[in-house]
Structure formats: structure tokens, C-alpha cells
Amino acid sequence: MDEKVIYEKVKESVVEALGVDEEEVTPSAVLFDDLGAESLDLLDIVFRLEKEFGIKIPRGGIQAEALSAEGESLKEEDLVVDGVLTPLGIEKLKMVMPEVDPARITEGFRADDIPTLFTVQTFVNITKKLVEDKEKAG
Amino acid sequence: MGIGIDITEVSRIKSLAEKHEQFLTRVYTEKEINYCNKKKNKYQHYAARFAAKESVLKALGVGWSQEIKWTDIEVVNEPSGKPRINTYGKVKRLMEQKEVKEILISLSHTSHHAIASAQLIKGE
Prior knowledge:
The complex is a heterodimer of chains A (138) and B (124). Chain A is mainly α. Helices cover 51% and strands 3% of the residues of chain A. A two-stranded antiparallel sheet of chain A has the order 1-2. By secondary structure, chain B is of the alpha+beta class. Helices cover 42% and strands 31% of the residues of chain B. In chain B, the strands form two sheets. A three-stranded antiparallel sheet of chain B has the order 1-5-4. In chain B, strands 2-3 form a two-stranded antiparallel sheet. The longest helix of chain B is centred in the middle third of the chain and has 19 residues, at 42-60. The mean pLDDT of chain B is 92. Chain A binds chain B through residues 38, 40, 43-44, 47-48, 50-51, 58-61, 63-64, 66-67, 76, 79-80, 82-83, 93, 111-112, 114, and chain B through 8-9, 12-13, 16, 19-20, 22-23, 58, 61-70.
């Protein structure tokens, strides 16, 4: 499926879930800081996308990709210790979320705060991946 | 040891439940749904349970890689009315790994907000 089509649907979902103006929604807009979202709003957006595309976005699904990336057998403790990202965790997170400004992921960044990094493009990327997985599975 | 706290707006839970049919079944167990639906202000009870689940996840320091389900954490009420936490699946395994014997929970709600506080008790 074309990314443009997915982007338009993500944009529509964000506008409806957050009640923001269309002009405010750009690929790089940060859900929390730029568009005023709260954690339950993310769920609202997730459910809209699930319905639209017939996919299931698991809790933590966006972040979980870091561990499965490139078939590496990384363990949770390699990436996060006491809720704080390790240097390797920071590196991997930047890699799996290239849409996020890397300057926002600094030393001492907490895994709990990952959702505050999400941009409109983050939702486009995860939706695109899940739609492709679904298409592959037939 | 670990503690966690969360506050949830009742109106947000009501609106999510009304807008998305998958919300209740994705987040709550059958037992929780049956309990809340019997209550006069059911969304206050749903909101308190949502806050409880989030506070337990915070207390456990759930990492980014674990695809945990909300239904892995269940709030049940003892005959006295006191809430208690049951855990399943990945959350149960995580408790075992962290040698957590019990999770204490305290809930409170008004017509607008629900709040929950969770505390992990380590076992021998």
C-alpha cells in the first residue's frame, strides 16, 4: 500500500482523535508536545488505524521492533536498566525511530517516556509495516 | 521494591469505550467488564481499573520490548470490597523474575478522575 494513502488516513485519525486542525498535522509533528496529545489519545489513534486497515497494533509494538531489528538477539537488559536506556538502547532506539529528532533521545532517557517521542510519521511507519506484514501473510 | 501511580480522566475512558468497540475487550478481562457493568457509575470503575493497570506497569518498570496486554493485569474485589491484583501471562512471568510476591493496590475515584497507586511486595 502506498505510504501516501497511509499518511492521509493517519492524518485523518489524528485530526479526529485530537480535535486539531488539519494544517497542524505534519509528518514531523510530535503528538504530545506539538499536538497536545495525552497517553489515552494514542490509544484512540491506534484503534482508529486498526479499524481502518484491519490490523492489530500491540501495546509496546512500536518499541518492540528495536529488539527484533536485523535479527539480533538482544535482551531487554542490554537496552534498558532500571527503566533507563543504556547507550546501546539509545543507539537502537535512534535506529528504529529515524523519524524522531535524535537530539531528543539523550543520556538518561527513560523507556517510559518513549511515547512522548512519537510523531505523526511514527504512526505511518508502524501502520505501513503491519499492513505489509498482513499482505505478505496473504 | 517498586511503586507506581496513575491518574485517569473518567470522561476519556467513557468516550473511548463509546467510540471503539475493541476498547473494553482489549483492556479489561471478562470479570472486570461484568463487575463494572453492574455499577451505577460504571465508567468511574473502568477508569479506576485503567489507572490500576497503568500504575502496576509503572511499579514493575515494564520495559519497552515487552508486548504486554492490559488484560495480563486484573483488578478483582474481595468480599470486603478491597481491590486485589491478579496477574497473567507476561506480567505474571515478570513478577516471578523480579521475585515480587504480591502487588498491593489502592484506588479512588470521583465523577471526574480515578487514581490508583500500586506497590510491589518482594517475596522470600
